[in-house]
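Long-time lurker, first post. I've been practising inverse folding by hand and with some scripts of my own, and I keep getting stuck on stretches where the structure tokens seem ambiguous. Below is the full token string for one chain I'm working on. Before anyone asks, I'm not after the true native sequence, just a reasonable design that respects the backbone. If someone could post their per-position residues I'd love to compare against what I wrote down in my notebook.
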């Protein structure tokens, strides 16, 4: 099989799994907002969302090295062996951070690893946005506008992922208060607001993924 076809297939497959499981998280968390559900049912939904969101994060980690391989396979940019190796090392470490964080759920280590992951995403997103914009403006180092636009949008995906994480964070305090002291309109409003903020960021993230997939396959410019 041609390497471009192989890496293109893997790349699209990762995007598809990322999108499908992400939509699942969106639906589940939207159901959590409903105060008419029993708290036990809502807790089960939150746990389901936690389990589901691991797959999109793993796809995110693997998109980077497979994207590098695809870039070399279609001769968009000359890749050195060192760059290929580095991309797989980064992807592997990223997966390890996710796996250890999941196994350490509820412990300080998990929170620390999540912060490490978010900091990495912030800088990686900045690098891709700058790289893509510079290529669009000057034609270098990427002279294909569609690929430069794809890099720019993928940088925005990193930031959208951070925004989703930040948006969901205020959810846990009022949800824990409901568990301990019962539901109140104020707590339900706080839960709903946090979920809405997180879902809005996730919706933006998945819209970006769809646009990136479209540009990568159609190459409209």
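-- Answer (accepted) --
I ran through it position by position. Result:
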């Amino acid at each position: 099989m041609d390497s471009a076809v192989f890496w293109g297939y893997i790349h699209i497959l990762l995007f598809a799994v990322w999108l499908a499981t992400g939509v699942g998280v969106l639906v589940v968390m939207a159901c959590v907002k409903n105060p008419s559900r029993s708290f036990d049912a809502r807790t089960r939904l939150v746990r389901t969302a936690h389990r589901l969101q691991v797959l999109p994060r793993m796809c995110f980690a693997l998109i980077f090295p497979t994207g590098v391989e695809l870039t070399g396979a279609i001769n968009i940019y000359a890749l050195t062996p060192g760059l290929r190796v580095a991309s797989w090392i980064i992807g592997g470490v990223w997966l390890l951070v996710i796996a250890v964080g999941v196994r350490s759920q509820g412990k300080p280590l998990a929170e620390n690893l999540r912060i490490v992951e978010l900091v990495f995403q912030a800088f990686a997103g900045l690098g891709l946005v700058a790289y893509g914009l510079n290529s669009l403006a000057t034609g270098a180092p990427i002279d294909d506008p569609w690929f430069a636009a794809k890099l720019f949008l993928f940088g925005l995906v990193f930031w959208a992922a951070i925004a989703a994480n930040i948006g969901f964070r205020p959810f846990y305090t009022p949800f824990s208060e409901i568990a301990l002291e019962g539901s109140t309109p104020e707590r339900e409003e706080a839960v709903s607001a946090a979920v809405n903020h997180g879902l809005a960021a996730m919706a933006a993230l998945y819209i970006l993924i769809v646009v990136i997939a479209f540009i990568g396959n159609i190459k409209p410019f």
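A couple of notes from the structure itself: The chain has one domain: 3-218. The mean pLDDT is 88. Happy to go over any region you disagree with.
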